[in-house]
Fold each of these.
Amino acid sequence: MLINQFAASGFRNLDGLVLEPHPALTLLTGSNGSGKSSVLEAIYCLASGHTFRTRRVRDYLSFDQDALTLAAQLRDPRNGSEHRCGLSRQRDGEVQLRVDFETATSFSAVARLMPVKALTPDSHRLIEQGPEERRRFLDWGCFHGSPDFMEVWRRYRRALTQRNEALRRHASDDEINSWNPALATEGSRLSELRLHYSKNLALHVKKRAQSIDFPFHMELEMRSGWDQSESLEEALGTRLETHRRMRTTTDGPHRADLLVRADKTLARQHLSRGQQKVLVHLLHLAQLDCLRDDTVGTAIVLCDDLGSELDADNAEHVVDQILTAGHQALVTGASSIPDALLDRCSDHRGLAIQMRGGKAGA
Ligand SMILES: Nc1ncnc2c1ncn2[C@@H]1O[C@H](COP(=O)(O)OP(=O)(O)OP(=O)(O)O)[C@@H](O)[C@H]1O
Ligand SMILES: [Mg+2]
């Protein structure tokens, strides 16, 4: 899916912004504070209900406004079909989400329509930090790759919330265990979907690493979140005392992790910061490869300040690969945009837009 037009008001310093991105490459240039990252955040927010910098509405709702509105006109390049999505959010918390002129009840309807991926200056957190970031990464791919994933995940969360609530109020064993079958059924299915996806992802990561002569042998391993010598239902039974002590369920796919190994050692222990950044971009490119395998088609890839993350050659390579695979890229940079990308705009294979005070110029 491609964005034909995007409009934003009441979002950070964006007010009355209307943007018509290029189907391939759009460069957003402009001085510090002109609103480049805000444009990418606003697109991300429309597809997910939060931004890649913050989940707090008060951070991105314009200081002097009581509401924000975001709207996108989308086009599917495979069949030319057009779609519209819109979000309005009031300071008092009211949210309205529309997809093709109908009210939508969850952001998954928008996310399904517009797969958005953000490559941001702190993307190395994927390697460096705890498992939560990696679960989110994995689940982005599973969500787009498998139509059932969201529903299975929701059912699992519902059962988990109920079991944890029972643990918190020291309910009887019978009551706590009554949630185990639902948790085990949905959790095992969730884990299977993740495992299937991570295997395909691992193949693409290997290919991607080889294609740039990345000097490490890359492996991915999905850890399910419970002791694999037992089924999830057994683990929930045998670990009940621990869960009672912790007053929460500490086994299950909500504790999963995706281990990223370079030459058999965890990448975060082994690789330099720069190598970690290159690797993170390889992981994202591999995820975009999976999207093509799953016939989801193309994504909208937001590259915020790529030049501050990667050296010019690597930054150019990443954008080049995104474009070669047919995805739409929106790339920001104050002074760090590689020349090769600027050249694409001069010969009409891309569009450069100068941001000034939250407005878009030519
Ligand atoms: N809630 C808000 N309401 C109004 N303005 C805001 C809000 N949050 C941030 N801003 C302002 O919005 C402007 C745009 O910020 P943004 O991060 O998009 O700039 P940028 O062009 O990406 O800059 P840089 O080159 O430094 O990355 C900044 O001047 C910032 O102070
Ligand atoms: Mg910025």
Amino acid sequence: MHLTGSCLCGGIGFELDGWASPVQACHASRCRKATGALYSPEVAASAAAFRWVGDEGLIRQYDAPILHEPPAYRRCFCDRCGSPLPVVIAEAGIVILQAGILDGTAELPVFRHAFVGQKSPCCDITDGLPQFDGQPPAPDPSVLLG
Ligand SMILES: [Zn+2]
């Protein structure tokens, strides 16, 4: 599928043509801090199909202290406007992005909830989708969107 996205100021964006996962609602406390949202709407996509568009000099990176084992929890964001930017995980061949920075009306449904054990008491999950107390397994290839 063809997806585009950009930060709030428009200084840096991206596009990709390849597979993408539906949205994983991640309730981990670190993801809630990083996004300022009750949960982080995460999309995984092919790193091979991803490219930055715009001023890559605006990309900033933060590696949080390691809690259990490497790699560090990494966040990328726009230096000018603070929007969360995709994080390329080269060794895994994937990029993780927040669905809210996608342009237009890409139809990516939520398909599961991760780290429900850390969810905000403000967030009631009522959609009946699968819930995982911690990190779920990699999504089955059959759920990926072409
Ligand atoms: Zn920006």
